[in-house]
Write a structure and sequence with these properties.
Elements lengths: L9 H9 L9 H13 L3 H13 L11 E3 L15 E3 L9 H22 L5 H14 L5 H21 L6 H16 L5 H22 L10 H15 L9 H14 L9 H8 L5 H5 L4 H23 L5 H20 L1 H6 L1 H7 L5 H8 L36 H5 L3 H10 L5 H22 L6 H7 L10 H22 L7 H12 L2 H12 L7 H16 L3 H15 L7 H12 L15 H14 L24 H10 L4
Antiparallel strand pairs: 1-2
Helix pairs in contact: 4-5, 4-6, 4-7, 6-7, 6-8, 7-8, 7-9, 8-10, 9-11, 10-13, 13-14, 13-21, 20-21, 20-23, 22-23, 22-24, 22-25, 23-24, 24-26, 25-27, 26-27
Length: about 650
């Protein structure tokens, strides 16, 4: 006699019988066949053969054969006809414990039932209720462990089926997204946000493992299926629904954490899909218009992730076709933020400038040109414009990041504040110049440890990614802004009008004692604060002009001019404070700008300065009454401010 079941197999028989309610919508003949197939799989020789086949199969843990099959004739494999329906194929089960094998079988049946429901089109509420009851009976979502395992199995099955289809069939991906939304909205006695976060984390884990497993393979990682999955979830979970309207912030927070986990420096092959997701109209605007400040902080993290990924390529001019496309996409995102959410760029400009290499002048100008919508910029060409009399010039700007983080990290903050208060010890400025270099050397070791990672951006996360730089640029930026804020506080507290204080001593010593590279980073950090009208813009503009006027070394004046000019000769937009500072430099006779030797060292240099000077000087009205303005994209610099003001006053958003 043929032995169908092993001895003491009653428990397994009961488990096979318990799975039959999941197939209640199938024809009777097919249910009988499923029963015998389930019993047949419990035979000892069948189980051993399955384990042998799995041990010989290579690759990723979730299945090595076809996951889902679609019969073109509209019939299920091994079953009766069902119009356009799907059937989960027989898989060689990986080497797993018995509990996981059972979970895989039950999850496969439940997923197949859900695919059938999705393909039926219009479905009654009774059908959905029956499906929920099946899930409860199966116990797939009973515990955290079973929930994560269930999500992992169905995600792997759907992704594998979609990826193996030559025409990228997204039917299973769409059904998976609908199932997750269905569970989040209608599963009772559960924490909806916790359930959504669990699925997103599992999906991110599956994506990362898929990406790492296919690294270097001929058939590489395919990001389209994952993009489709996350896009569908963003759409469906952002539609108005009473069950989720009060939890929208938590939903966006869950997506933000997932996107940060999938940042390009960790999953480079997912970079283009990732950029599309963070800029999605169902994600970025909803996150930025939310009231809690932490929403803006979360999105700032994603923008920094993007800039950090691009930084090593832009720093070293490695502009391949792919990097160039990604750079263009980043500029478009920044343009949308500049016109639609300028306060966001204003608040986090410091973090963004930290992540942008010094070679990306136009990208930095984009960020620094932002100004709040309740601020009206005076025309820089207004005759006799008194910047220090503007009402906004006394207001501090909003800064949403910790300026002192790098100072604390390198143990600079405490001695710095002591020197600012007492001007003691007198040797501190000289030691500070040395600290800027020794800190960079320590960071370079951390960056070297990351060189074995998947992309140069991983090394950039450990420190300033530039093998030729001996300065810690982040520390320089933090130092300059913090010293400036302390200088402003001292002037306001003592009502001082002069620049003779400890803060100015530090700026002068840095400019005089550092080599050209270090001086360039310091002057760039000062120029990064020349933005819209506020007390930071006014103070740092005065610092630059003071250094130009009182410096006895010609190379200092020349380098100050270079930092200002290289930001002005690129395409618009240009920061308002930058224009104000340069116009004051060339108009005020005490600076004797036109008499400086470097402005006439060569004919082409003289023509450049003459062109820029004429564009920054008010033009005389002609017979038609037209006053000075400028051509877009040329050296006529302030021409766009009237248009920008008109757009803001009219409330228009491009």
């Amino acid at each position: 006699k043929e032995t169908i079941l092993p001895p003491k197999g009653l428990r397994n028989i009961i488990e096979v019988l318990l799975r039959l309610p999941a197939s209640v919508s199938r024809p009777f003949e097919q249910r009988i066949k499923m029963l015998f197939d389930g019993l047949h799989s419990l035979r000892p020789e069948q189980t051993a053969a399955t384990a042998t086949n799995t041990a010989q199969s290579s690759g990723v843990r979730p299945g090595g054969a076809e996951d889902l099959k679609h019969d073109k004739s509209g019939s299920r494999e091994g079953g009766s006809a069902g119009s356009g329906s799907f059937k989960v194929a027989e898989l060689p089960v990986p080497v797993e414990d018995q509990e996981t094998q059972e979970m895989r079988q039950r999850s496969t049946i439940v997923l197949d039932e859900w695919l059938t429901i999705c393909l039926q089109g219009t479905v009654s509420d009774k059908t959905y209720a029956q499906y929920l009851q099946i899930l409860r009976n199966e116990g797939l979502l009973a515990t955290t462990k079973s929930t994560n395992l269930f999500f992992r199995i169905i995600t792997e099955l759907c992704i594998n089926h979609s990826s193996k289809s030559q025409t990228m069939n997204y039917t299973t991906i769409d059904a998976l997204a609908k199932l997750v939304v269905f569970l989040v909205k209608f599963l009772d006695n559960t924490n909806k946000i916790a359930l959504l976060s669990a699925f997103l984390q599992v999906a991110a884990h599956v994506l990362i493992r898929d990406h790492d497993a296919k690294k270097g393979m001929k058939i590489g990682f395919n990001q389209k299926s994952y993009l489709r999955l996350f896009t569908n979830l963003l759409y469906d979970l952002n539609t108005p629904d009473p069950s989720l309207d009060s939890s929208l912030i938590e939903v966006l927070n869950a997506f933000t954490h997932t996107f940060h986990k999938l940042r390009p420096s960790r999953v480079p092959a997912f970079a283009f899909a990732w950029v599309e997701l963070i800029a999605h109209r169902m994600f970025m605007p909803k996150l930025l218009i939310s009231k809690p400040h932490r929403c803006s902080v979360m999105f700032k993290t994603l923008i920094v992730d993007l800039l950090e990924f691009l930084k090593p390529y832009l720093q070293n001019a490695e502009l391949t076709e792919q990097v160039h496309l990604l750079y263009k996409g980043t500029l478009r995102i920044l343009l949308v933020l500049l016109h639609g959410f300028p306060e966001f760029l204003c608040e986090f400009h410091f973090s963004f400038c930290d992540a942008i290499p010094t070679t990306c002048i136009q990208m930095r100008n984009l960020i620094l040109s932002a100004f709040p919508r309740n601020v009206r910029l005076p025309d820089p060409l207004t005759p006799n414009l008194k910047v220090d009399l503007l009402p906004e010039i006394t207001h501090p700007p909003s800064i949403g990041c910790d300026v002192t983080e790098a100072l604390i990290k390198h143990n600079v903050l405490a001695p710095l504040e002591q020197y600012v208060s007492t001007r003691q010890p007198s040797s501190f400025p000289q030691k500070l110049c040395e600290k800027l270099q020794t800190s960079a050397a320590a960071d370079s070791k951390a960056a070297a440890a990351a060189e074995g990672s998947s992309s140069p951006s991983d090394a950039a996360a450990a420190g300033e990614y530039s093998s030729s730089s001996k300065y810690d640029v982040r520390l320089v930026n933090s130092l300059v802004l913090h010293v400036g804020m302390q200088g402003i506080a001292k002037l306001q507290a003592k009502n001082e009008e002069g620049m003779d204080n400890a803060c100015m001593d530090i700026f002068e010593r840095l400019v005089m004692k550092l080599d050209p590279e270090g001086r360039y980073y310091v002057l760039n950090a000062i120029a990064n604060q020349l933005r819209y009208p506020n007390n930071h813009t006014h103070y740092f503009s005065c610092v630059l002009l003071y250094l130009f006027l009182h410096s006895e070394e010609m190379f200092v004046k020349e380098q100050i001019t270079r930092v200002l000019l290289e930001r002005l000769i690129v395409h618009q937009p240009h920061p308002w404070g930058l224009l104000i500072t340069f116009i004051e430099l060339i108009k005020n006779p005490q600076y004797e700008f036109s008499r400086q030797p470097f402005t006439n060292c060569a004919p082409e240099i003289a023509r450049l300065f003459d062109s820029v000077t004429r564009s920054c000087m008010p033009a005389k009205e002609d017979g038609s009454g037209a006053a000075g303005g400028g051509a877009r994209g040329g050296v006529h610099l302030p021409s766009a401010y009237a248009a920008m003001e008109e757009k803001k006053l009219g409330g228009g958003r491009p």
